[in-house]
Task: structure prediction
Amino acid sequence: MISTLLSFLALSLAHADVAADFSEVLHSNIYHQVVLEDVLGEGSGAWDRDPRYPINTVNCMVWLQLLIEETYAKSQPALKNQVMDRIRYFGGVVSFGTRKHFTDHWLALDGAPLKRVDLHSCLPSSAQPGQHDVDLNFRTFTKAQGYSCPLYRDDFTKQSFDYVQSKDFPACTKALAPGHYILFAVPSTKFLNRTIKTSGPMGLVHAVVLEIQSAELARQNGMEPRKPIVFHASTAGKHVKIENLDEFLRKSKTIHQGYALYTLDDSWLPTAERLAQEKA
Result:
């Protein structure tokens, strides 16, 4: 009992500052080559034989998943593969059918350790969140992939969520506390027209990390206080880009309507026991 308690306390202390761990992981993972396709699969002998863990090459979602995994497994690297599986697969069960292929599906059913931000807490009183509805079409996706088996909860297709419209995002950031936030873009019709034939409709695309530095940290880094910056794995640039938020919004205005806003849950402790229980 005492040893179990001490182990739990050690893990709690190790994860007491997820924000600091995430910041360190983020800034050390900006050198990957970025491609459009999903570079990961279920490994040798599986239907998709691509590796289960990225090596140098990522797409935008794999890059985010890598950041999350390395943050939560930072103090226990022996668990990194299990944590990655837990993030990429429903219940941590590894198969193409249980992989979290669609961001909307992932966040609605099994989004831990991501937590949605209450948008009313950051939007000015004159602004209202955007509302987006999507009806996912898994058959379009599986047909394009040549996969004939069902996907996990393929009956759960209709999603509805709110988001910060692009025009309101600069004002929203002024009310956010310093730290890191995860953004998922709401695609415009122009964006969807490029992908809908193989994916079907999508509600959330392209993972972005928003960094808002404290005034003290901004001064240390020679930045203007409260000037937000974003990190994102750009398929166009083929690398992880670091841009001022205003510049990013300007470049993305024709392909993104706005952004859903998330934070990381600092109470999520992926111990070996917990991972095994969730998978069972």
